[in-house]
Structures are given as structure tokens and as C-alpha cells.
Amino acid sequence: MTDKSYVELVSRNKDFRRLWIAAVISMLGEWFNTIALFFLILEYTDSEFLLGVLFTVRMLSFALLQPIIGLLADRFNRKTLMVVSNLAQSVLALGFLMVDGPEDMVWMLGLSGLMMMLHGAYMTAERAALPNVVDEEDLATANALDAASWSTALCIGAMLGGIVVSVWGVDAAFIIDSITFLVGTLFLIRLKLPQERDVDMDGPLISTAFANIVKGWKRIRSEPRLFRIVFAKASWNIAGGGLAGVYLVLMGADLTGFGAAFGFGLFFFARGLGTGLGPILARNVFTNPNRWPSLVGQLIIASGFFYLLVGLTLDITLWLTVVLVVIAHSASGANWVLSTILTQQWVEDEIRGRVFSTDML
Questions:
Q1: First CA to last CA across the chain, in angstroms?
Q2: Helices in the chain by DSSP H: which ranges?
Q3: What pLDDT, in 10s, does the model give residues 151-199?
Q4: What is the DSSP letter of 96?
Q5: CATH says 6-359 is which class?
């Protein structure tokens, strides 16, 4: 059986459609929020250092609690975990309306960290749940669409977020962000999500937590091919997701004659375009799954090489730099989707949340 087309998968699989739409709506609002935070920091402090602090807080908040999040994604209903995450983020997004000056930066960083922790819980639960709503042969299509949608949300959200902030101010962006989480939750409520449960989860949560978390790590270590792709992906998450993000913000802030909001939007639009094209190209070009494990490493190297060129060309021509950002993130997007598919195929449902919690670091 061949995998379905994107349109066919969305139209015929109602549970995947609900999961996909909920994610797209929430991601769109997330990028409104992100652009607004960048703008707040530069408006109130003009501090590139604080931008780095924001990214550090977000990265650490996303990563540090992942072992516990993975445990919860295997112990409790993943749909419930996603719903609770969305509702909590909807409330927290409104907390940014209280930011009114440089004295509120600590409050802003704390809220951003909490939201990123909840976002990590949503993503881990969603990645672990996807094989339960689509057939195995459709995982490539589903993951490519998911990645392309994330990228589209980044492109549209970053550009629209920049426009909204420029025209109506940051408060409008935060209100829109809050609303998107509520709308996304409406689609999740009707989602039917089967889930296998690990018998080791039957004991008390606190007393069995550490042993069950370690069980997830042992599952990764027990299969060398799984260990290699999880380690490679987690390593790139630090560079491609974290350090590269800081660099894009700094480049956007330094664009002469355009303004910081437009600069943020432009470079994150390029990032989104690349991470959308990469998975689609990977699905259609790399059709032999046996080659995917080796391709993961090659794609990481390619992405790093093109980011080196980004740094060398910024002072030469803006549009060449934008193209190189697109290419670099096309490679990283292809790496992301191929490694995700392999992890979903190789790992059993009852332990998939714990494995993905390490994969998402």
C-alpha cells in the first residue's frame, strides 16, 4: 500500500485532521507571541544580551523537564495532556499584557519559560500520539505535512506578527496568541486517541517515576540505530533550534533601514520556508527508508555548512543571506522529519513518550 497524498490523508482521516488543525492554529499564535517578545526586549532594553537570555530560558524550560513530561505522556492520556497544555498557555499568554517597562523583564522571562515548558509537553505528546492516528505507511506524509505546517505557521505568524506589532502593538499579538490556544483546544476535544499503556506505570507515580524514566533511556541505548538518530537530533536541536534562533534575531535587529520587527519577520520567514520545503522534498526524493539513518547525519552537516555561509554573506548582500537561511533550514527540516518517522516506527507506543522526551531535548 502506498502512502496517501496530503489532501487525501487530511480529508479521510478525521482524527489526524483534528490533531493537525489544532497544532497549526496553536503554532500560528506561538509565533505572534515570539515576535512580540523580541520587540518588547529591544523596545524596553535594546539589549542583545537579554535576547540571548530569552532564548536560553526558553530552551532550558523546554528541555529540562522533558524526562518528566515524557513520563506523563506515557502514564496519562496524551490528548488530555495536550488540552491542559493549551488551556494553560491561553491563560499565561494574557500575562504578557502586564509587561510595561524594563522592570518587568523578569516577569516576562518567567512567563515565557512556563509557556515553553507547556509547549514542550504538547509537542512530546503529539509526536508520541501520531502513530496512533495514522497507519505506519502514512507516517512520512503525516510528518511532512506536520513539519510543513509548522513552517507555514512560522512564515505567516512571523510576518503577520511583525505587522500586528508594528500597527497595533504587542498587546494585540498576545491577545491573538491566547485566542489561538482556545480555538486549537476545540479541535482536540473531539479527537479519538487510542493509547497502549506500560504495565510498569501501574504503581504510584512518585515512587516509580525515576525507574520508569530510566527505562526510556535504556530503550534508546538498547538499539544502536535508535541511539544514533536520537543523539544526532538532540544535538542539532541545541544548535539549529537555539543558537541559530538567537543569530536570526540579532541579524534582524541589525537590518539598516527596515526596523527590528520587519527584520525578525524576514529572517524567521526564511527559516520557516526552509523547514517547510525540506520535509516535503525529503518525502519525495529520499524514497528508500533504508538510507534514512545515514542521511540524518549528512543533512546536519549540510545545514551547518550553509549557516557558516550565512555568517559570511550578511555584510555582502541581504537577499543571498536570506536564500542561504532557507537552504540551511531545508536540510535541518529534512533531518527532523526523517529522524522523527524512524523513531515513531521503531519505538513501542507504551514507551514512545519517554523516548521522544529525549529526542526533543
A1: 34
A2: 6-12, 14-44, 48-64, 66-75, 78-94, 105-129, 139-168, 170-189, 205-222, 224-236, 244-253, 260-285, 292-313, 318-346, 349-359
A3: 778 778 777 888 888 889 889 999 999 999 999 999 999 999 999 988 8
A4: G
A5: mainly alpha
Q: Cα separation of 207 and 215, whole Å? A: 14
DSSP code of residue 2:
P
How far apart (Å, rounded) are the C-alpha atoms in residues 163 and 198?
A: 47
Domain residue limits, the chain: 6-359
Q: b/e for 218-256, b at 16 or more Cβ within 10 A?
A: ebbeeeeebebbbebbbebbeebbbebbbbbbebbbebe
Handedness of CA 77, 5, 25, 281 (dihedral sign): positive
Report the alpha-carbon distance of residue 273 to residue 268 in Å, rounded: 8
Q: SS3 of 220, please?
A: helix
Stated pTM of the model: 0.85
User: Cα-Cα-Cα-Cα dihedral of 152, 156, 158, 162, to 10°?
Assistant: 180
